[in-house]
Amino acid sequence: MQCAEPDTGWSQSVNVDIRHQLLRLGSLPASRHSRKMLRNLSTLSPRPSPKPISLTSPFTRSTLNSIQTTLEATYSEDDIRYDPSETHAAVLVPLCNVNNKPGILLEVRGKLRTHSGEVSFPGGRVDQTDESALAAALRETEEEVGIRPEQVEILGRFGPPEKSLAGMRVWPFVGFIHPTPRTIGTNADTRTANETDEPMPSLDLSTLKLSPKEVADAFHLPLPAVVSPLRLHHYLFRGTRPYFAIDVSDIISSKFKDPSRTDVVSSVENASWASNPRERDEIGGGREGRLEAWGLTGWYLTTLLRRLGVYDHEQ
């Protein structure tokens, strides 16, 4: 992926920090340093059993460290290989606490030419001005929901990257969203053992700045919802690989029934999404009139949650 140096307006310290993370994650074009890093990653031992994360207790520094360690240990050669001749895109899987509850920040797409009314992660196409796929994910996240790169603590990535229906190779990254820009270099090394188990600050969704053209709604999907039998639907990704689609219809509809709710914000006046009349996979909001995290979003959620030990690999 040949990308020019970006003119993003980020501070030099942020660029240095992100470049360090990019090199660690193997996402920059292959320099001498990154080629050595990729060789090291490809020789890691088999994937260990992840330490279970709590679905009900808020994310803590200890939790984030555990997630980061698990993701770093689950690379494979297929996960980090890319083809410069392909068109690339990137998404951010944003973990966050909201009202002291752990979960994932998701979007409902606005009235776009493609993907209108679909549940997705923040993200989009890698532009020529993007230094890397990760830089594209951070840029798109800021453009779509107003979360600045300095608020995102990158925890890792997973794969392999799948192709979208439009033919783009989509690279997924995982990050924790801080409510305010964080000081670069602040980490668990400066905290006591007790502090690592204290809840990370919660994100106030009212502070998000949605792009009305791109995002109709942004909402917090609490972790207990990803294991709720009433929400889960068992589908086959691209007709062959089992995954869970997650019904989120009630979360979006609830905002318009109860404006006091703080787990969803909207740039539209009413809840709406469209299902494909033929119920074709990955097109529209979901099946049987539901709004679901499905298709590539559902597949990536299932893959990540398998890596973290929330789902069994057989599910």
UniProtKB/TrEMBL annotation:
Cofactor(s) in the UniProt record: Mg(2+); Mn(2+)
InterPro entries the UniProt entry points to: CoAse, NUDIX_hydrolase-like_dom_sf, NUDIX_hydrolase_dom
The organism's place on the tree of life at top rank: Eukaryota
Secretion signal span: none
The keyword Metal-binding belongs to this UniProt entry's keyword annotation: yes
Gene3D superfamilies reported for this sequence: Nucleoside Triphosphate Pyrophosphohydrolase
KW Protein biosynthesis (keyword) present: no
Domain Nudix hydrolase: 86-245
Keywords annotated in UniProt: Hydrolase, Magnesium, Manganese, Metal-binding
Pfam families, alphabetized: NUDIX (PF00293)
Name the record gives this protein: Nudix hydrolase domain-containing protein
